[in-house]
Amino acid sequence: MAIELNFESIVSMVENMITGICIFELKNGKITPVYLNEGLSRMLGYSLTETQKAFKNVRTSIIPEDLPILEQAIIDVLKDDGAVDFELRTVTLNGGMRWLQVRANLYSRKNDIYTVGAILVDATERKNVEEELRQQAEKLHIVAAAEGEMIFDYNAKTDVMTIHHTEDVFNRNEIIINNYFGKFEAGFIHEEDAEYFFAVFRSALKSPKHDTMELRSNRYEGEFQWYQCSVTSMAGVEGYVTRVVGRLVNINERKIKEMDLKIRAEKDALTGMYNKGATEQLIKKYLEESIEGLSEDIDKLHAFIMIDLDNFKEANDILGHAYGDKVLSDTAMTIMTNFKGSDIPGRIGGDEFVIFVRDIESISQTDMLATQLCEGLKKSIPSAYGEIIISASIGISIFPYHGTTYEELFEKADKALYTTKANGKDGYRIFDAAATLAYHANRRKSNPLSANFMEAPAKKLEDLVSEVLFNDKIKESSLRSVLELIASEYGMQRAFICDRDSEKSLRFIAEGYEIGSDENRAWREEFCESLSQSHKHFCIIHQYDDLDDEERSFMVEEGIRSLIYYPYYNEGEYKGAIIFENHNEDEILLSDDQKNELRCLLRIINAYVLQDGFMGRVPNAVAQIQMMDNMDNYVYVIDADTYQINFVNRKVILATQSVQIGEYCYKIMGNSDSPCENCILKNLDRTNPHARESEERFNYSLRTWSKNSACWLECNEESATCMMSCVDISDYLG
Description:
The protein is of the alpha+beta class. 37% of the residues lie in helices and 27% in strands. A hairpin with a 4-residue loop joins strand 26 (704-715) and strand 27 (720-728). The longest helix has 22 residues, at 124-145.
């Protein structure tokens, strides 16, 4: 019986079709469904209300990766060239994924409103079958290419890894590892390769891709061997990676040969160190990594150390190349003994070496390393022409203060090395150490990549000097650093500590003012001692001042226009002097505040040079100095056995110029040639570390009556150090 085709029957047929029918309007890019049949709801497994909800905003119900397909389909439909076919994935209300095959065409156009009709078919099952066939084809392709090696198949959904040899592909003799990443143990992968393996695998799980890596494994051979691992990840019907397949090819023999060739290409044949090219490449690579992490770790410091052997050419020419090669080999051995495995040591020329020291804790650590190198590399070689002294001249630059690239650090270290050579060889220099120290002390308050360290909130110069002196375990290096720091602050070109008891005077000489050798050392010491006869205390001296002929002649010959002079004493006897030379201006113009600051700085250096009293024995010396300098009383630190003054605070320095570290307290304070008859130090009980005594006495250096309180800073059988605090009481006495 024929069915009568009226409007109602046609609507009923459309509603009950197994395919989905959708009519929607498109205006200004907005998609608005105007009709959805019940067949669409049944196909998607929704109620009609749920279907209308899902299609209310079509774009949000489509997998983001497929949105470009929808947008292109809309463009093609609006061209009105006929029906447009396309496939895309939609997200169901329960979070699942479904493939839809869509056929759409333009129904009508009225002004800027387009009406489009579309037929939708559920293509999920067909796509599943196609994907399974594709995966099988991919798997068979990998197996065919494996050439007798192992393949693996990882199921991301179940976390199951299957591994087998190619001859076992079509039987069940395979290794199956359940909960592969859930209980993963990286023991079968070499510790240096495990992180790389994880990174590649995680990347493959994020999106479909192909990658190849080389790693060492001991799972199959019993000992670590090299494998080439090819990894291919594939997306399932949901659009996400569900499978990772690949193969493992044993490349151990080839890899060992390659590594051997690489080592030969990177290493210097004579010394076994990295050659010039490899040294540069390794340092550049590490610097790139360091720059990336610098913003997160402002304390990260690296040292670039350049070494040049002094008198090597002479030894090589006199003793022959064979002996010269031995010197170079011994040098390399000494260098590698003094540095950790993560550092980069290299030979970059005939007798030139470089060490890049990673992650130093402080600049003073570099001082220590350079000192060890100088001591370890110095040797005396007898020859028919006399003794040949082999030593090392060293230049150092610091990352990031002196640069963040290989070229910048090399240039600064090379300049520092040149200055070491010009200053008599056999030593080291940190490039622009004064600026580096100031920058280093303030690095937490400034941008570590700032080109101008003075932009940082600066510490007081006295605090910087104290930090350098009392936190650095190497006395000579700390004193050199402090000399440079003060000289740079006050615009001086040279600085010296001429000590009677030291074999080698300490000095700082700015670039362009080098003196070449120590030949004039005796003249400078004689000059300083001569000045001590007429200048007992801190003073500023100019060429045109009242000097004797020899003193003025020395200044003229040395090009010294003016200088700052500070003699120091021990047990009342002249022991040496600290001088800062100015070669540019006719005279040094300092404010009263600057002069007072300099007196304090020189007093700290003076105490440190002597270092047989307070500074050398009392714990937490820096903290003690800061505490006493901030006290409103006049403070003296005195050795109770010798009566020597080991320290005076800032207030004493500002009040009088007559007090010198190393002088006797009874001479300075009591104007006497022997200890006071009723000395407060004698009354202090040495068996009681908390003992305290007080007295009232006239202080000749301060020209005032004072109440003196004495207590122990340090007291034991070997030595005793007393702190005396004095309060001006002259107003109370009338």
